[in-house]
């Protein structure tokens, strides 16, 4: 079990269900930097079930309505948080990854999370523990050990830069160009999360330095994008290719092992649901195992979570493909408006 969002949520739920839990985390500490996450109402309800929903809401801020725009600033479609609030009782909450991990870790007693303890071989864990939870992320070694290389990571056709900037933005949203996207969301007073997505070959390395490359592509787009990029030098920026898991796993369990989060259903970030689904996975797994019958509990977990998360992953990949369109952009925009009119995955 890793000490990320899904692993910590699972640990809280299992301890509440009476299990003795140990979390093995490869890193030496929790991260102190990181960009923002949108926590949707379904995940907030799951966090409420763990007793930490209020603390997560307090650590972030509710997302205001925004828009998806074209590079000149014209609006393609509105992202209506009022509609989310009407349907689900509250909007999406924006919270930084370090803040969310901090809330989750504080809900566990000292010593439950063992830092600096990578798990490279699941065999001993399976022998010595009643249940092993594989929450070891997108590059899960446990997934590969159980299901082989056939179910692996596939390049989604784009690379992404993520960072934060010392800048105020009142609302968030995305801007879609031709094979390129830029997104901003408020993180708090004087702080903005941003990300830039560029359709490119795998392992793309631009001829220019990263800041100059982003200014070349996005610097003439509407405000506040140029202002964000002007602050690139003071941002904590990560860059990586976007991958997803394919083909989908035939099961989220194998023997006494359960996979969750990115280890089970790594998806492109286009719906903003990766962290949310990991939280919901963890709460569902803990509930399914609360009766004490491990085999029955794992079967119930697989039935409950595999199909919904795989549908979510397929939808995210479809949006990813649509956002990378280079032709028929008016048709793309019309399809996007129709899809959002049916309601977001809250």
From TrEMBL:
Coiled coil: none annotated. SUPFAM superfamilies: FAD/NAD(P)-binding domain. Keywords: Monooxygenase, Oxidoreductase. Pfam families: FAD_binding_3 (PF01494). GO terms for molecular function: FAD binding; monooxygenase activity. InterPro entries: FAD-bd, FAD-dep_Monooxygenase_BioMet, FAD/NAD-bd_sf. This is FAD-dependent oxidoreductase. It comes from Catellatospora citrea. The lineage of its organism: Bacteria, Bacillati, Actinomycetota, Actinomycetes, Micromonosporales.
């Amino acid at each position: 079990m890793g000490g990320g969002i899904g692993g910590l949520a699972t640990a809280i739920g299992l301890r509440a269900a009476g299990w003795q839990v140990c979390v093995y985390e490869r890193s030496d500490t929790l991260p102190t930097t990181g960009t923002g996450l949108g926590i949707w109402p379904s995940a907030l309800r799951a966090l409420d079930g763990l007793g930490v929903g209020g603390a997560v809401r307090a650590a972030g801020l509710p997302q205001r309505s925004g828009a998806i725009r074209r590079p000149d600033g014209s609006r393609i479609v509105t992202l209506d948080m009022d509609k989310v609030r009407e349907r689900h009782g509250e909007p999406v909450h924006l919270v930084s990854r370090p803040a969310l991990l901090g809330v989750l870790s504080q809900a566990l007693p000292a010593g439950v999370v063992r830092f600096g303890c990578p798990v490279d071989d699941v065999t001993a864990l399976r022998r010595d523990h009643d249940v092993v939870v594989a929450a070891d992320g997108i590059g899960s070694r446990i997934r590969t050990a159980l299901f082989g290389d056939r179910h692996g990571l596939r390049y989604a056709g784009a690379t992404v830069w993520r960072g934060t900037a010392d800048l105020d933005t009142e609302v968030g949203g995305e801007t879609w160009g031709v094979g390129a996207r830029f997104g901003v969301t408020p993180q708090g007073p004087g702080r903005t999360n941003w990300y830039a997505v560029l359709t490119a070959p795998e392992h793309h390395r631009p001829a220019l330095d990263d800041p100059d490359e982003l200014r070349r592509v996005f610097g003439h787009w509407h405000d506040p994008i140029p202002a964000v990029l002007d602050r690139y030098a003071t941002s904590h920026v990560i860059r990586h290719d976007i991958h997803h898991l394919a083909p989908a796993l035939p099961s989220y369990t194998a023997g006494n092992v359960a996979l969750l989060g990115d280890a089970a259903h790594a998806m492109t970030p286009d719906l903003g649901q990766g962290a949310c689904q990991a939280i919901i996975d963890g709460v569902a797994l803990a509930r399914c195992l609360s009766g004490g019958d491990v085999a029955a509990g794992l079967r119930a977990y697989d039935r409950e979570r595999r199909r919904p998360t795989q549908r979510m992953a397929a939808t995210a990949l479809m949006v990813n493909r649509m956002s990378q369109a280079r032709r028929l952009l008016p048709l793309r925009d019309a399809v996007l408006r129709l899809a959002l009119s049916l309601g977001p995955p809250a």
